[in-house]
Amino acid sequence: MNLEFMQGALPLYASALLLTLRISLLGIVLSLVLGLLCSLVLYQRERERSRALWGLGKLVCVYIEFSRNTPLLIQLFFLYYALPKLGLMLSNEECAVIGLTFLGGGYMAESFRSGLEGVSRVQFELGLSIGLKPLQLVRFVIFPQALALAVPALGANCIFLIKETSVVSIVALPDLMSVAKELIGMYYNTLEALFLLVLCYLLLLVPVSFLLTLLERKLRYAEFGI
Amino acid sequence: MPNSGFEVLLSVNNLRRLAVGLGGTLEIALISVAIGLALGIFYGLLLTSKNRLVYGLCRLYLEAFRIVPVLVWLFLFFFGSAIVLGVNVEGFFVSVAVFSLWGCAEMGDLVRGTVTAIPLHQWQSAEALGLDKWQVLRFVIIPQALRKITPPAVNLVTRMVKTTPLVVFVGVTEVLRVGKQIIEFNMMKNPLASFWIYGFIFMVYFLICWPVSRFSKKLEERWAF
Amino acid sequence: MGLLKGKVILEIAGLKKCHGSKVILDGLDLEVTRGEAVVVIGPSGCGKTTLLKCINGLESHQAGKILIDGREAGSPGFGWHEARQKIGMVFQSYDLFPHMTVMENILLGPVRVQKRGREEAAAEALALLERVGLADRKDDFPRQLSGGQKQRVAIVRALSMKPELMLFDEVTASLDPEMVREVLDVMLQLARAGMTMLIVTHEMEFARVASDRVVFMDGGMIAEEGKAGDFFREPKTERARRFLKTFYFRAD
Question: C95 contacts in A (CB within 8 Å)?
Answer without folding.
Answer: 120, 122-123, 126, 226
